[in-house]
TrEMBL record:
GO terms for molecular function: DNA-3-methyladenine glycosylase activity; oxidoreductase activity, acting on the CH-OH group of donors, NAD or NADP as acceptor. Belongs to the short-chain dehydrogenases/reductases (SDR) family. The keyword Membrane does not apply. It holds the Pfam family adh_short. This is DNA-3-methyladenine glycosylase I. Coiled coil: none annotated. InterPro entries: Adenine_glyco, DNA_glycosylase, NAD(P)-bd_dom_sf, Sc_DH/Rdtase_CS, SDR_fam. Its EC number is 3.2.2.20. Keywords: Glycosidase, Hydrolase, Oxidoreductase. The keyword Hydrolase applies. The lineage of its organism: Bacteria, Bacillati, Actinomycetota, Actinomycetes, Mycobacteriales.
């Protein structure tokens, strides 16, 4: 680590003018490594479980030490703790603690090492109730003023005190209010970058990659799309209500899992607050319930279909539109041939998907001046868990939809999404209809 020899100029705000002319707090002006960390990582929104877990543990290790020390040891710590993978760390035993205590360069504090293991187990347990990311980000303050001086930077807050208490309740260790507030600063829950300081150059390690958000990403077309886009080099944020599935998928593709209920305004707002970049939004969340004639229509089923397919698409698109506009991004709405052709018993789903069809058309007209592309993809018969949801778990009825027929699979639609997303920015595919060869809809 190279320590700077530049004679610092301290400003009235308490910031230091560094060799490159940028203003930074004194702690970030000590070395090139700290300056780079401050410019590219500190305060960047972090939403995935593994990185939040890592940050909590690193802050615990810092207790009584400098961040410069922790930053220098971070590569070693990542190696020893398997990249801070909670599933791997939770398997550590007393023998592993003894082994780590003997490693050269290790922070040889038995309690801190044991805390990492305890925190891994607590992180896994939290998956049953929303997950670590959901818990931590639920304590984001509703209003936070950026400090105007270094002296004005807080060391605790009511939110950090409350979050520390909640983390301890779940079994986390080395998570006092001050340590937790430092974590909140580092992962972007609070913006304590002093007004006038050098800005954040990039948001997190994935910001050099284009970022795609896929709703309904825990299974079916959403999961297949996430995998296809990741294979194409996108950093994919998979979003859905089933967090356990999301975390598995995100881990396998190197993406980020964030819980999202597209029918809930608060959930959408909380989700959007965690997304700092969005180049591609795949509105895939949706579905059908029932196949009843209008005379026997279930109002609750109709309401769910409208809320999920139409309102969900509107909510998420509206919430992420600023990020999409910044990136001159692309919205891909997954519609259905049900939005183009009606059929007996399908009135509720037909109406919802006709709504998505119209919504896509209006988005195309309204977003053109912002440089945001809009594509509507309308699949035909695709064999996924769609019919199982539609018939509320009745596998026999669901299988009958596909038995004896040629069907598409989720990967077919994912390939279509991958294709339209990979086209040059001047090319807009307005609408795609994808059906099995034997299914004729016109």
């Amino acid at each position: 680590m190279r320590i700077t020899t530049h004679h610092p100029e301290l400003t009235e705000s308490g910031l230091v003018r560094c060799e490159d002319g940028g203003l930074r707090p004194p702690w970030a002006a000590v070395s090139d490594e700290l300056r780079h960390y401050y410019d590219t990582e500190w305060g960047a929104p972090v939403t995935d479980e593994a990185h939040i877990f890592e940050r909590i543990c690193l802050e615990g290790f810092q207790s009584g030490l400098s961040w410069q020390t922790i930053l220098a040891k971070r590569p070693l710590l990542r190696k020893l703790f398997h990249g801070f993978d909670p599933d791997e760390v939770a398997k550590f035993t007393e023998a592993d603690i003894e082994r780590l205590m003997q490693v050269s360069g290790m922070i040889r504090n038995r309690r801190k090492i044991a805390a990492v293991i305890a925190n891994a187990k607590a992180t896994i347990e939290l998956r049953k109730s929303g997950g670590l990311s959901h818990l931590v980000w639920s304590f984001r303050p509703t209003h936070h003023e950026r400090p105007t001086t270094v002296a004005g930077i807080a060391s605790t807050s009511p939110e950090s005190t409350a979050l520390a208490k909640e983390l301890k309740r779940h079994g986390f260790q080395f998570v006092g209010p001050t340590t937790v507030y430092a974590t909140m600063q580092a992962i972007g829950l609070v913006d304590d970058r002093v007004v006038g300081a050098a800005p954040l150059v990039r948001y997190g390690e994935h910001m050099s990659e284009k970022t795609a958000v896929v709703t309904g990403g825990s299974s079916g077309i959403g999961e297949a799309a996430a995998r296809a886009l990741a294979a194409d080099g996108w950093h994919v944020i998979v979003a859905a209500r089933r967090l356990e599935n999301l975390q598995r998928i995100a881990k396998e593709i190197g993406g980020t899992a964030i819980r999202l209920d597209v029918t809930d305004d608060d959930s959408v707002a909380e989700f959007a607050a965690q997304v700092s970049r969005c180049d591609l939004l795949v509105n895939n969340a949706g579905g059908a319930k029932g196949l009843d004639p209008i005379a026997e229509a279930d109002v609750a089923d109709w309401q769910w279909m409208y809320d999920t397919n139409v309102m969900g698409t509107m909510r998420v698109t509206k919430a992420l539109l600023p990020r999409l506009t910044e990136a001159h991004g692309h919205v891909v709405n997954i519609g259905s041939i049900a939005g183009l052709r009606s059929y007996r018993g399908g009135a509720g789903y037909n109406a919802a998907k006709h709504g998505v069809h119209s919504l896509s058309h209006v988005m195309r007209m309204e977003f053109v001046d912002a440089g945001v592309r809009v594509t509507e993809i309308n699949p035909g018969r695709v064999q996924t868990d769609f019919s199982l949801v539609r018939f509320k778990g009745d596998a026999e009825r669901a299988n009958a939809v596909y038995d004896g027929h040629q069907n598409l699979v989720a990967d077919d639609i994912a390939e279509t999404i991958r294709w339209v997303a990979g086209l040059p920015s001047h090319v807009n595919i307005d609408q795609v209809v994808v059906t099995p060869q034997e299914q004729v809809i016109w």
